[in-house]
């Protein structure tokens, strides 16, 4: 499954890139967002922070992302690091008392806030009341008259605000904006938005419904949440990438349950909301769906065999080894690249890279079963010291477990 995001650079007065505005796109050749609703913002957020490498996407500068009123008020920006995100408030969002209070909170948390297509109205107290919490005002250079621009730039005398001239399309407009005192510049004169694509793993929407229902309870059952997430390769992958982005390998993950506990239920709920509104209407690819089901069979087989044999190491770690073993085929990205984005413990990473250890041997066994390579099966069974009956039982249990979730999705 392909995902898309467009980026357009923002330059400072010294012609250096200050950041990129990241924009929603439906396809590689689409030229406009076509939507400014919650799902469009959620799509940009998930793609930018979880599907793409954000550092590469923005050249390690700021990313400007549009937020709707709903997402601002439910705390969505708090899922993303303030050192990277500029909260861009759409012109359609009126600065109510609730919005102003939210901006005050985000400002205190260290986020930069930008107002898009701001229109100065001294008769509207709220349009002025929000300004102490704003870092940057974006002005449409083509539709805002020169006299209005002049009046708006006077706000610099009263607030610590910088101004960005957007939709600058000619050198003449750029030079005029510089002369007027604008600090940043964006538009076709510099570069049109460039659409980038990346592979993504589809999520089964049925799982979202189960997770949302459980997290609405006063005391959600962590074991039940773990069970659902373990049945969903996409959600598991994004959960680990999210932790990696937040904690930068301060944690080595051994299980999905541990990942949920580290993230915390409050942040887990917010991310669940973002992902669910983003994925609600996505179509499934039957080839990818088959790879995902194989991943789940591998994960459950490795975990079940580890439990039956009481092999050294957490059974949940064997599950992760099997489940992520096809991620490179699904995303069409080298495994060496993918493991750098996941905070997995070293033994799991080594196994995924083909380095022999106990995890890799169990993984090799399920691969041999898939290929009906009997010589390899017997060799590995002897090496691991496991009976053939135990292998068969584990494999049948894994298939039954996987089919259970896929039949629920299709119901």
From TrEMBL:
SMART domains (UniProt xref): EAL (SM00052)
Leader peptide range in chain numbering: none
Domain HDOD: 201-390
Domain of life: Bacteria
Alphabetized Pfam families for the sequence: EAL (PF00563), HDOD (PF08668)
EAL domain ranges (all copies): 1-207
Listed InterPro entries: dGMP_Pdiesterase_EAL/HD-GYP, EAL_dom, EAL_sf, HDOD, RNase_Y/CdgJ
PROSITE patterns linked: EAL, HDOD
Matching SUPFAM superfamilies: EAL domain-like, HD-domain/PDEase-like
Name of the featured protein: EAL domain-containing protein
Organism: Caldibacillus thermoamylovorans
